[in-house]
Amino acid sequence: MTFDLLVKNANLPDDRTGIDIAVSGGKIVAVEVGITSEVGRIIDAGGRLVTAPFIDIHFHMDATLSLGTPRLNRSGTLLEGIQLWGELKPLLTRDAVIERALRYCDLAVAQGLLAVRSHVDVCDDRLVGVEALLEVRDLVKDYLDLQLVAFPQDGFFRAPTAAKNLIRALDMGVEVVGGIPHFERTMEDGRLSVKALCEIAAERGLMVDLHCDETDDPMSRHIESLAYETQRLGLQGRVAGSHLTSMHSMDNYYASKLLPLIAEAQIHCVPNPLANIVLQGRHDTYPKRRGMMRVPELMALGVNVAFGQDSCMDPWYSFGSADMLEVAHMAVHTGHMTSRDAVKANFKAITENPAKVFGLDGYGLAPGCNADFVLLDARDAIEAVRLKPNRLAVVRRGKVISETAPRTATLSIEGRPATVEPWRYAPVEAAAS
Description:
It is a single chain. The chain is of the alpha/beta class. The protein contains 13 helices and 17 strands. It has two domains: 119 residues, Urease, subunit C, domain 1; 305 residues, TIM Barrel (Alpha-Beta Barrel), CATH 3.20.20. Strands 6-7-8-9-10-11-12 form a seven-stranded parallel β-sheet. A four-stranded mixed β-sheet has the order 3-2-1-4, with no helix packed on it. A four-stranded antiparallel β-sheet has the order 5-13-14-15, with no helix packed on it. The relative contact order is 0.15.
């Protein structure tokens, strides 16, 4: 058999080593040791990690790369970010949103990020962001999967035309129902918005992804309503609760009730480590809360936890680089998840776990899967989280669409090596652990 592409001597996230991956017709056709055949192109992984692509399951592409327009967020706070978005939104044009989104997708591809779920604000009656990102979704479909969430950012009930605009966005082809219950005027309005939004999703056969309890208030408990509505309407496995930062502040007794309810309802939980730890706790003195949901405890209950980047150089977050390994790296630190198994779990939270939330077909590194994968300048998943290494090759449907040189430094120090390659500093037992 003739293959289009053959990757030799790769390590995989499940700790298999010395594996070859054969590709034909845009699909993976074999994953085994010692494949020999005629082939169009061979890539020697050289004992480095090959992984299925990274996935960002929570992002705001309508705002990305807008940092500085119309002004900078000087305080770096969530409240100033919200104010800034309100100033920027009337200035948005379809062409400008498309241009920024495409530039971001270029960066994402270079980082091995080939699937993004983006929330898009529907509270602008022009629906400029919706129109723009629907076009972007079509423009990038050959190299990046873009899934859109209709997001009533100013509140489903609080914004006068949000409910109507959300339905318009869904009719235009947006795939997921979004919401922000904690931003409604009252807790009761928040509860009712969860009910209404889940009913819309159930009626249309759509998924749900709510910004939920993104606050330091431990009494913000809309995730409880979301779990209830998910079960009432039979939406298990189709619902994501994003942020859930109030969980950080809840007392342990209530959390002991809440977490099993989330597991029972099969809700996907989506922390956004980079944004959550800098936007929450701003009213605290010391000790300061950091606003991360209880990731280890949720994982221990079998809840599917998937990380999002949330923002990249926009009104809310002035950093970001489309690097999901940066997200996992931060989560490891904030969650005290430094055991070997915990670091591997964090790697899954930017790969296979978000693929489940996304409903991504053909994802993985097995025969029959789409030939989408990334070769990293690192030995294994733990080292990838540690190093945030270069993406040596990014493959989409069997075609190499991005390449980056290995990270190598040249030394001019007498008696020391001529070069330094960070990936070779992995502990000897890492590959077998």
